[in-house]
Amino acid sequence: MSQHVEQLFERLWQDYISRTPSAPKVHEVLGKGHPIVNDHVAFRTFDIAPVRLEALAQHFLDLGYKEGGDYHFEAKKLRAKHFEHEDPTLPKVFISELMTEEFSDSLQAKVKEMVSHINPEDVKKDDFLYSGTHWQVSHEDYQALLEESEYAAWMAAFGFCANHFTVSVNQLPGYTDLEEVNQTLKDNGFKLNTSGGEIKGSPEVYLEQSSTMANHHPVEFSDKTVEIPSCFYEFAKRYEIEPGKLYSGFVAASADKIFESTNAS
After folding, report:
1. Which top EC class is given (predicted)?
2. For residue 48, what are the domain limits?
């Protein structure tokens, strides 16, 4: 079972670095030859069948993952869940979905049109989580979505893939805190997400997070090719919720700011 999980994450990683070329450099800068352990991998989707959050989650439930917490993001109009595996070396999974009915009729119509191109049987296939877009949109459509929801526009451009991987600072040799990690990244030319401060969260909520700003990647829209923000890398430091047990959930107020790593920078 764990071999299948590892194969899935390896395929997700290879797909992710194709639009996040800075990610291997993060490994070089922070890992210095040591393997990097990922805390979690995040995905985005819409609240429309057949691609609802639960449909994506089924891939992980089938591989032995269990449901963790539920999260709501009122301003960005999202709901999310996280999933964990009993093998602590495997990354947690964070899946969010856009609550489309809280947006304009035009956004709802565009998203429904995009999702209508997806064969429900394809959603069950092993490669769906890194299958990208199943539709074509114009750059004008992308811009219209962007005015209402960065999340919707990002989905229109990139579709189904890992939105970000996350370095586990707890398992990063040579580092004891997130400030050191951030400084090393800045010293090596990485731009960090400063929304809500470079570090989101605190020991008091048992989780600190930071992230790079997304790479820019060329996207072929139906009318032209444009470079837009793609994917980013996150860094997480967890604290003990009781002796010998690290907090394994997420903090909605911090995650809200992490979503902004794909904003135009």
Report:
1. oxidoreductase
2. 2-262
